[in-house]
Amino acid sequence: MKNPKSQIQNPKKMIAGIIALIFLFGCVSIAFAAAKKNASGAPVTVSGGNLTFKLKDADIKSVLQIFAKQLGVNVVAGDDVSGKVTFSFTNVKPREGLEAVLRAKGFDWFQEGDTLVVTAKNTVRTYLLQYAGAAEVKSALDLLAETGDSISVNDSYNALIVKTSTKNISRIEKAIRDLDVPPVQVMVEAKIIEVRNGDDGNIGVDAKYTYKNNPNDVAQTINQAGRSTDTTPLGFYAQLISSNIQTYLSALLANTKYDLIASPRIATINHKEANILIGGKIGYQTAVITTTGTVYQVNFLTTGTSLTITPHVGEDGFIRMKIAPKISEGYIANGLPNENTTETNNEVLVKDGQTIVIGGLLKDAQTQVDSGIPILMSIPFIGGIFRKTTISNEKRELLVFVTPHILTPEYLDKLSTESKSLLNRQEEQGSSLIH
Predict the structure, then answer these.
(1) Considering only 121-135, 232-246, 266-280, 350-364, which range has the smallest mean pLDDT?
(2) DSSP symbols for 192-245
(3) What kind and span of H or E run contains 48?
């Protein structure tokens, strides 16, 4: 007969065994989960189509499988696609997360249908620029190019075609993003004033002696004095006729004074040169002798009032400007161009809206030309009878007032309002004149 006490202990052993089995099953489950976590890197949480998970030293191909599953595509990775990655994503879009991982590892990728191809070879990409010039950006990117890279320009589409390694593409893309930004624009208001004072005059005497016994015997000076009978005569005239001696005196002094004023406005992009010309071009011909003959070319001498500026805008609102005003006159003599200029080159630093003045450009020229009969014109007192004196004095002063403005939206609105007001006033004046 069995011991009742042992019968009571058997259920206890059974319970203990069951607990042991449950504990063992829990340990196995935890170990399996840990193994799975180590294999995939981390449990992936999906919320609203976005992913949240962390990976540390995970194989890149395992990571590609995670993203491929979320994107619903197949992944083909070349043998050269290898390595470990560590990252942490929170609520990231699958496509953005994949591109971030591949860019960090320097891999290139493209999709053909439902297949995503990942490679570590050189890649070719095209970038359509919105603001910057493709040729200028290329000059900057050439500094980042590695051996075997090539960067070409398509001027028709303002585009760059870049062929480089996948590990270098991220640096080039960042440089393109930094350079292709809306440029700052500057408008410069200028007032160019040239003040001129001049004195031009001449004094001369024509004398004529006729031998009384033979009127064909004559001694005289010619064209040293103007005559009142000349075309458009000007000046003071005196004529003396006595016996066989005739003398004629003329004197003229002309004083001129005038201001030449130009008030141009120039708008340009930051760091870009701009110029304006108020004047004209004088043509002249030059001959080029070749082995087959002579070829004639037409060239032009530019004269008038011109202004050239190059602005450089700083982040603090100051503008460094290169300013080159010029006033010139010209003429063609014996087929060759001759030019008289007043010009200056300056580089200044001003704040937006401030006015600078460039002045003190003075020119003072005095000319006296004596022409007459040699020896006789140098005799004291009576030498003036045999001499003509032409005097020319000229004084010039150039003043340039320059005011730069950064073309902000507020300033453009102000210009638009002023333009509309001016247009309305002109229309009102025009309508009143018609009626």
Answers:
(1) 232-246
(2) EEEEEEEEEEEEEEEEEEE-TT-TT-EEE--SSS--TTSSS--SEEEEEEETTE
(3) none
- Strand 159-164: give its sheet, edge to edge: 123-128, 159-164, 150-154
What are the tokens at 243?
């016996």
Contacts of 321 (CB under 8 A, 6+ apart): 188, 309, 310, 311, 312, 347, 348, 349, 350, 402, 404
User: What is the Cα–Cα distance from 435 to 428, expressed in whole angstroms?
Assistant: 11
Question: What pLDDT digit, counting tens, does each position of 65-102 carry?
Answer: 888 888 888 888 877 788 888 888 888 888 888 888 88
pLDDT in tens, 311-357: 999 888 899 999 888 888 888 888 888 888 878 888 989 898 888 88
Tell me which long-range contacts 69-73 makes (C-beta under 8 A, separation of at least 24).
70/44, 70/46, 70/94, 71/95, 71/98, 71/116, 72/114, 73/111, 73/114, 73/115, 73/116
- For the stretch 165-193, what's the b/e string if a residue is b when 16 or more beta carbons lie within 10 angstroms of its beta carbon? bbebbeebeeebeeebeeebbbbbebebb
Supply 250's token pair.
């003329």
The contacts of residue 356 (CB under 8 Å, 6+ apart) are 348, 350, 401, 402, 403
DSSP per residue, 73-115: -EEEE-TT---EEEEEEEEE-HHHHHHHHHHHHT-EEEEETTE
Judge residue 274's burial from the number of C-beta atoms within 10 Å of its C-beta, 0-12 exposed, 13-18 middle, 19 or more buried: middle
pLDDT (mean) for 405-430? 77
Of 226, 220, 193, 161, which Cα lies nearest the Cα of 307?
193
Mean pLDDT of the chain: 77
pLDDT of residue 105: 78
Distance CA 19, CA 23 (A): 6
Instruction: Please name the residue that has the structure tokens 């393109």.
Output: 176
Grade residue 127 by pLDDT with cuts at 50, 70 and 90: very high
Distance CA 141, CA 178 (A): 11
CB 181 within 8 A of CB 136: no
Find how far residue 157's CA is from the centre of its chain: 20
